[in-house]
């Protein structure tokens, strides 16, 4: 029986659609790497009492992530809109349930990259990226950012983009639509994480 190919998990939460678009652009970049499957997953909304309120299977769009989706991935791209400079509660709630994966070291030495969106230009994008990184670092994962070289986009962007990860500014003129520079930065990040995931996957 043949061994299934390794896969890169693209995990996100989105309300207005901006973060979902970032996720799909990152996945597009990751799909350039032959020999690696790309799986896109989301998480359900939560109530103020921090209980999941969505149905077990979404009616449309990307399916919900399971703990085993996370455990089995060769690499991870993860994103959330900013919430006061931090990740949104639904994604935090999902990560808070991963203690069992931490206990068995399921994520150790796997690469990860991050993405976020905000409705204001200085809306806490970089702090959101860094706070999303913290639980993944505790899992033993390896943080992959966006280098300034050889691509010029990070130095020339007039909207989103950071060495800490891909970002989008949902300004009033564009809303959830990413500009071309933001799209390219997402694809750079996706391809880089995918390439490292392939390199680090045991053969």
Secondary-structure blueprint:
Blueprint: E1 7-12, H1 18-30, E2 37-42, H2 67-72, E3 75-83, E4 86-87, H3 89-96, H4 99-103, E5 111-118, H5 125-138, E6 142-143, H6 153-156, E7 166-169, H7 180-200
Parallel strand pairs: 1-2, 1-3, 3-5, 5-6, 5-7
Antiparallel strand pairs: 3-4
Helix pairs in contact: 1-7
Features:
single chain, 203 residues, alpha/beta, Rossmann fold, seven-stranded mixed β-sheet, 7 helices, 35% helix, 18% strand
The largest sheet is: 7 strands, mixed
- Helix-and-strand structural type: alpha/beta
Order of helices and strands: EHEHEEHHEHEHEH
Overall tally of domains:
1
What is the C-alpha radius of gyration, as a whole number of Å? 16 Å
Helix content: 25-40%
Given the C-alpha coordinates, what overall shape results? Answer: globular
The poorly predicted ranges are: none
Number of helices: 7
The number of distinct β-strands equals 7
* Rounded mean pLDDT score: 91
CATH superfamily caption: Flavodoxin domain
Can you name the CATH architecture?
3-Layer(aba) Sandwich
What is the beta-strand fraction? 15-25%
Distance between the termini: 16 Å
CATH topology: Rossmann fold
Under CATH at level 1, the class stands as: Alpha Beta
């Amino acid at each position: 029986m043949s061994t299934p190919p390794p896969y890169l998990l693209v995990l996100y939460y989105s309300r207005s659609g901006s973060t979902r678009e970032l996720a799909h652009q990152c996945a597009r970049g990751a799909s350039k790497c032959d020999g690696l499957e790309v799986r896109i997953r989301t998480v359900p909304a939560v109530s103020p009492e921090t209980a999941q309120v969505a149905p077990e299977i979404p009616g449309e769009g990307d399916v919900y992530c399971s703990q085993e989706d996370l455990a089995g991935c060769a690499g991870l791209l993860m994103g959330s809109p900013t919430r006061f400079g931090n990740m949104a509660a639904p994604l935090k709630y999902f990560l808070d349930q991963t203690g069992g994966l931490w206990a068995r070291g399921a994520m150790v030495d796997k690469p990860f990259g991050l993405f976020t969106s905000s409705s204001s230009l200085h809306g806490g994008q970089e702090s959101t990226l860094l706070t999303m990184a913290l639980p993944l670092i505790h899992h033993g994962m390896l943080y992959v950012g966006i280098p300034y070289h050889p691509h010029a986009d990070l130095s020339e962007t007039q909207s989103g983009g950071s060495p800490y990860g891909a970002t989008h500014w949902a300004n009033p003129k564009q809303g959830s639509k990413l500009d071309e520079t933001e799209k390219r930065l997402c694809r750079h990040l996706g391809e880089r994480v995918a390439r490292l995931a392939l390199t680090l996957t045991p053969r």
